[in-house]
Specification:
alpha/beta, 8 helices, single chain
Length: about 170
């Protein structure tokens, strides 16, 4: 695949896993947005939120997406909030295909409930809160996506094959 692929979806939807699998299967470059921001800022996402707030972090995401616009054959694992800004969606759509990885709140909870590096869920790690936040973000995910792929109960290989089939059509 020569096109860029931007993976969007809620925390725990499988973006990192699918990004690594796409990278390996199709010999793509991989960018993990959160990791790249941590490297540039020299601090963890939770510390960026604590020190500078969510608005500052969201601006860092936009700057990184803009910098990535010159890339080709790259899979980008986006932070869960990236599609919440229209300018981010515009940059992604101009520079590749956007894939929304859809996941049930219960699956998200099961995957991430023991993690403590997700500032928006710290102190709110429960299915009801996750479900509410997902419903809030859903219109943005759907508006940004070229395709939607369900991840519940599926292997990374199955999901990657579906993504490839959609781009081959």
């Amino acid at each position: 695949m020569k096109t860029n692929i931007f993976l969007i979806g809620f925390m725990g939807s499988g973006k990192s896993t699918i990004a690594r699998t796409l990278k390996d299967k199709y010999h793509m470059r991989l960018v993990e947005m959160d990791e790249e921001i941590e490297k540039r800022e020299k601090k963890k996402i939770s510390q960026i939120f604590a020190d500078s707030g969510e608005a500052y972090f969201r601006e860092l995401e936009t700057e990184l997406l803009t910098a990535l616009s010159q890339q080709e054959n790259t899979v980008v694992s986006c932070g869960g909030g990236v599609p919440m800004r229209e300018q981010n969606t515009a940059v992604m759509r101009r520079n590749g295909k956007v894939v929304y990885l859809s996941t049930r709140p219960e699956t998200v909870f099961e995957r991430i409930h023991e993690q403590h590096h997700r500032p928006l869920l710290e102190g709110n790690m429960n299915v009801a809160y996750i479900s509410g936040l997902m419903k809030e973000r859903m219109p943005y995910y759907l508006a940004a996506a070229d395709i939607t792929v369900g991840t519940d109960g599926r292997s990374a290989d199955e999901i990657c094959e579906e993504i490839k089939r959609n781009f081959d059509e």
